[in-house]
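Folding Problem: From Residues to Backbone Shape
Fields: amino acid sequence; protein C-alpha cells
RECORD BEGINS BELOW THIS LINE
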Amino acid sequence: MSAIDKRLQELGIELPQVAAPAGSYVPAIINGRHVYTAGQLPFVDGALPQTGKVGAEVTPEDANALARLSAINLLAAVESVLGDLDRVTQVVKVVGFVASDPRFTGQPGVINGASDLLRDVFGDRGVHARSAVGVAVLPLDSPVEVEAIVEFRD
C-alpha cells in the first residue's frame, strides 16, 4: 500500500470511480510533468447530494463539505492518469467555482473544503496557489466545482 493510500485510509477516504464526463472532454490529462484536471463536481455514487446557490438554498458549511467531495473526485481523476498518487510532488494550483447567491461573498471559505483536504492528504505538497470564484450557475445546478494542476515525478 502506498503512503498516500495509507493516508487516505487514515482520513477515512475511499476514492470513487472517476466521474463520467458530462461533455466532450476527459477528466484529466498529462502535459509534461503536470496533470490538468477537468472541473470536478461533488458527485457521490453518480449523483449530486445538493443543488442550488450558496447563500440561498445551500449553506456555506454544506458547500464547504461539497468542495471537499469535489477534491476527493479530483484525486480520483489524478490517480486515473498517474496510477499512483505517491507520484504527486506538488499540488500547484486549485481553481474553485461557487454558484453563489448575488449577496454571497464567502467563496474562499467554501473552497477551503477542497484546499484543506488536499493539504491533509499530501501535507506540504498539497499547499497550493488558488482562485475561488463566484459564478451565476454551474453544470447540473451544482453548488461547487473544483479543478487543479498537479506536478508529478516519474
About this structure: The chain has a mean pLDDT of 97.
